[in-house]
Amino acid sequence: VQLQVSGGGLVQAGGSLRLSCAASGRTFSPYRMGWFRQAPGKEREFVAGIRWSSGSTDYAISVKGRFTISRDRAKNTLYLQMNSLKPEDTALYYCASQVVRTTPFGSWGQGTLVTVSS
């Protein structure tokens, strides 16, 4: 499966952005999808995840209450609504799929840059 990420950009602190991750292919039914990010000079970190079937979600503590992950199964698309953005949210954001519960995240999208100015 190929994942196409869009929606990044430059925003002022306190602003909002919505990222999208569209999956290609006729059959797309992963166990879970996730958003990750990597800031300059830092390791990639988990941001949010969603069970594709049930819609149950989990978040990194740093974004909980500000970011919302969602999916549209009919469109094979994953979203990340980011509100109350902070300069420390600046990073390259990726989406990835977890095919089954026992496998790691894979099929990484190409990433989109989110820059939050103070």
What does this protein structure show overall?
- This protein has 118 residues and is an all-beta fold.
- Helix content is 0%, strand content 49%.
- The chain has no helices and 10 strands.
- It has strands spanning 3-6, 9-12, 17-23, 32-38, 45-51, 57-59, 67-72, 77-82, 91-98, 112-117.
- Strand 5 and strand 6 (57-59) form a beta hairpin.
Oligomer: single chain
> What series of H and E elements makes up the topology?
EEEEEEEEEE
Class by SSE composition? mainly beta
Mean pLDDT: 95
Helix content: under 10%
Most strands sheet: 6 strands, mixed
Supply Rg: 13 Å
Strand content: over 45%
Point out poorly predicted stretches.
none
What sort of overall outline do the alpha carbons produce when their principal axes are compared?
globular
Count up the helices: 0
Count all strands and give the number. 10
N- to C-terminal separation? 37 Å
Order of strands in the sheet with the most strands? 2-10-9-4-5-6
Keyword list:
mainly beta; four-stranded antiparallel sheet; 0% helix; 118 residues; single chain; globular; six-stranded mixed sheet
Blueprint of the fold:
Elements lengths: L2 E4 L2 E4 L4 E7 L8 E7 L6 E7 L5 E3 L7 E6 L4 E6 L8 E8 L13 E6 L1
Parallel strand pairs: 2-10
Antiparallel strand pairs: 1-3, 3-8, 4-5, 4-9, 5-6, 7-8, 9-10
